[in-house]
Specification:
about 425 residues, Adenylosuccinate Synthetase, Chain A, domain 3, Adenylosuccinate Synthetase, subunit A, domain 2, 2 domains, 4-stranded mixed beta sheet, 12 helices, globular, binds inosinic acid
């Protein structure tokens, strides 16, 4: 069965490591949304891979495909691919010709958008131009990879883009779009990318009977429609976007990934946030600093109310818990099980104002004992009782089995349950 690996929290759940781990058994690894706002760190045999657009399956030499739902910064992609090839010389990575490009003006617009938002209404984006690039896609202005081979289409699209955006760029003290510069840049990037660009039909025909792993980026709580709008990313991160974003219409089952605690980068509601020394401890021990922006991530206890919502949104069939080792040394470990005493089976996280009035107290948490060092854990049978209690509680609450436990960054620090 094809599988979708989906982050169930606010991103940074460790999807990259698990995609690398599981991709051994798949033929094709597919990204279907987002752009280089994503950041995956995968460690294999003491080598660290930092990836933004390249699916982690490429480390095992699997064929990878970036689908039409991705927004691609050509400059970033070319640089990332060059550095990846220093470790893995001949990756096979295909790009859908329908992919929309992120260009320099999108990054400028991202910064302008943020600069005009006041105080708490700032989104705290990664400043990679993601929102403006998706805005152009729905606004029917995007330059697609397929346009790069046609000077006429490019000229006409660039003229429209310039007429539309120059007034805004100039108003906010940015340079207007230099058409010659953009044309030169795009023709150079076309030379770099043309051999990777393919038609969606090619993937569908070639991989008709092959096993496919879909790699989600960001997390379900950042989904444009399901997340706490407007503090979300600009794409649909949940699994039901897969057939659209990949143009591959095949069935799959969702494996949802979550950390043993919770983190969030950027602004927006975070009911179980710990603005104290435990939160700081999690950030330090878990290296909770953004791979893309280096910002310190906000940390908090695992929130099962939010996780349940994500599991339902993604039709999640099995779960993977990551970074349990980060909590090893805490004397008391907590899980948020209710908001203000209510179980909220069907809370609507898409409305951020519902979450703003939530102020959790002691009764909203289930408490667990310290489980200590996990290095001796070779299989689930050898897991400490305290950790087993923690895992049992989550499985019972969500009524979904946890099949993978990750307790360190290395590929080997993973057990199947
Ligand atoms: P954007 O995707 O750059 O527009 O940022 C929108 C929100 O999503 C901000 O809060 C970002 O911090 C967050 N975000 C975007 N990508 C990621 C990611 O890969 N991990 C965690 N947060 C992300």
């Amino acid at each position: 069965m094809n599988k979708a690996i989906i982050g169930l929290q606010w991103g940074d759940e460790g999807k990259g490591k698990i995609v690398d781990y599981l991709s051994e058994n798949y033929d094709l690894v597919v990204r279907y949304q987002g752009g280089n706002n994503a950041g995956h760190t995968v460690i294999v045999d003491d080598l660290t891979y930092k990836l933004n657009l390249i699916p982690s399956g490429a480390i095992r030499g699997k064929v990878c495909f970036l689908g039409q739902g991705v927004v691609l910064d050509p400059d970033h992609f070319v640089t990332e691919l060059k550095s990846f090839k220093e470790k893995i010389p001949n990756p096979t990575i295909y790009l859908s010709s329908n992919i929309s490009l992120i260009l320099d003006y999108h990054k400028k617009l991202d910064k302008i958008n943020e600069s005009i938002l006041e105080g708490n209404s700032k989104i705290g984006t990664t400043a990679k131009g993601i929102g403006p690039a998706y805005q152009d896609k729905v606004g029917r202005k995007s330059i697609k990879l397929s346009d790069l081979s046609s000077t006429d289409i490019l000229d006409s699209k660039l003229n429209n883009i310039k007429s539309f955006y120059d007034p805004i760029l100039v108003k906010y003290n940015e340079q207007p779009i230099d058409l010659d510069e953009y044309k030169k840049f795009l023709s150079e990037k076309y030379k770099d990318l043309q051999d990777l660009i393919i038609d969606n039909n090619f993937i569908n025909n070639t991989y008709e009977n092959k096993k496919i792993l879909f790699e989600g980026a960001q997390g379900a709580m950042l989904d444009l429609d399901y997340g706490s709008y407007p503090f979300v990313t600009s794409s649909n991160t949940i699994s039901s976007y897969i057939p659209i974003g990949s143009a591959i219409n095949k069935s799959y089952e969702t494996l949802g990934i979550f950390k043993a605690y919770a983190t969030r980068v950027g602004n927006g509601p975070f009911p179980s946030e710990l603005s104290n020394e435990i939160g700081d401890y999690m950030a330090e021990k878990g290296f909770e600093y953004g791979t893309v922006t280096k910002r310190k991530r906000r940390c908090g206890w695992l929130d099962l109310v939010a996780l349940k919502y994500s599991c339902v949104a993604n039709n999640t069939k099995e779960l993977c818990i990551t970074k349990v080792d980060v909590l090893n040394d805490l004397e008391e470990i907590r899980i948020c099980k209710s908001y203000n005493g209510k179980l909220y089976d069907q809370i609507n996280f898409a409305s951020s104002n519902i979450l703003e009035n939530i102020d959790l107290d002691d009764s909203d948490f289930k408490k667990f004992k310290k489980w200590g060092d996990l290095t001796p854990m070779k299989d689930y049978k050898s897991a400490p009782d305290a950790l087993r209690n923690f895992i049992d509680y989550i499985e019972n609450y969500l009524d979904i089995p946890i099949t993978i436990i990750s307790f360190g960054p290395d590929r080997n620090e993973t057990i199947l349950k």
